[in-house]
Amino acid sequence: MTAPDADGGDPADAGSVVEAVFDAVAETAPEIRAALPGRRVKSGTENASGESVMAGDLYADELLGDAITAVDGVGSFVSEEREAAVDAGGAVGEGAYAVAIDPLDGSSNLRSNNAMGTVVGVYDAPLPATGRDLVAAGYVLYGPITTMVVADDDGVREEVVEAGADGSVSRSVVEDNLRLPDDPLVYGFGGRVPDWTDEFTAYAREIEDELKLRYGGAMVGDVNQVLTYGGIFAYPALVDAPDGKLRLSFEANPIAYIVERAGGAATDGEVDILDVEPEGVHDRVPLYVGNEELVERLKAALD
Ligand code: AHM
Ligand code: MG
């Protein structure tokens, strides 16, 4: 895929823009991580989804916004924490790409010092778009180790990201063809059990007998366990919130893209997440993602 770059200069292919975006994300990750200890409090503002924003969310959003809009070939930057897209120069779909981020996924884990992440989707169409318009997606996991998982047409790789004493950032690939294990081991389901639908509750009861519960309250951390051990993660449709909690553009689409490239599947309960047609950039969607066999059973259970 070739296209003129955002400034109308030399053609930039999707691969080089994607590489530059994830270079920028990796460069920013240690800085975000280092800034978290002093930013475990509420910022006093609400985001476009009406949720309370933590100081860490705002800081991560600012750093990533600066780093990603500076990448040649990025025409638009869209964040879970911002009402509107930021124009980064260049027409998306005509040579430039739209980058969507959830700057600090699972930021309610700041107070309790548990895992969090940054989620990134690179789309070749203006948002809102479907997940079929993704050319790459990835996430950073701020766990005991900082890792970055990146998926594109070629597959999924996992890197360790480390900051040196002089501030330089080094990256080492630990897995260059990440695949979901065939024998699933873990599951993690969000939302309060009394708020689940009867159909989902019945499915969960079956899964509880087969797999081990691993739920940490940050989608990136919970999905990373599914990628590592095999299994299923869900933030389901709730009785009073039929669209669940997670956002299609910033969370569900990138995660679905990554898991599908790793050999798994993702659905909203009826259709593939990547086929869900959005109405707005901040739309929510139920997300069920993991080993294909478990996702197929889920779809049958909800039918
Ligand atoms: P956030 O992006 O505002 O942090 O919200 C998304 C997070 C997901 O990481 C996680 O799966 C879910 O919210 C957990 O929600 P809850 O705390 O309601 O279990
Ligand atoms: Mg999130």
Automatic annotation (TrEMBL):
Mg(2+) 1 binds at E80, D102, L104. Pathway: Carbohydrate biosynthesis. InterPro entries: FBPase_C_dom (IPR044015), FBPase_class-1 (IPR000146), FBPase_N (IPR033391), FBPtase (IPR028343). Residues 181-302 form the Fructose-1-6-bisphosphatase class 1 C-terminal domain. Keywords: Carbohydrate metabolism, Cytoplasm, Hydrolase, Magnesium, Metal-binding. GO terms for molecular function: fructose 1,6-bisphosphate 1-phosphatase activity; magnesium ion binding. It is found in: Cytoplasm. The keyword Zinc does not apply. Its EC number is 3.1.3.11. Mg(2+) 2 binds at D102, D105, E251. It catalyses: beta-D-fructose 1,6-bisphosphate + H2O = beta-D-fructose 6-phosphate + phosphate. The keyword Glycosyltransferase does not apply. Its cofactor is Mg(2+). It is an enzyme of class 3 (hydrolase). Coiled coil: none annotated. It comes from the Archaea. Residues 42-158 form the Fructose-1-6-bisphosphatase class I N-terminal domain. Substrate binds at D105, G106, S107, S108, Y215, K245. GO terms for biological process: fructose 1,6-bisphosphate metabolic process; fructose 6-phosphate metabolic process; fructose metabolic process; gluconeogenesis; sucrose biosynthetic process. Binds 2 magnesium ions per subunit. It holds the Pfam family FBPase_C. One of its GO terms (cellular component) is cytoplasm. Belongs to the FBPase class 1 family. Homotetramer. This is Fructose-1,6-bisphosphatase class 1. The lineage of its organism: Archaea, Methanobacteriati, Methanobacteriota, Stenosarchaea group, Halobacteria.
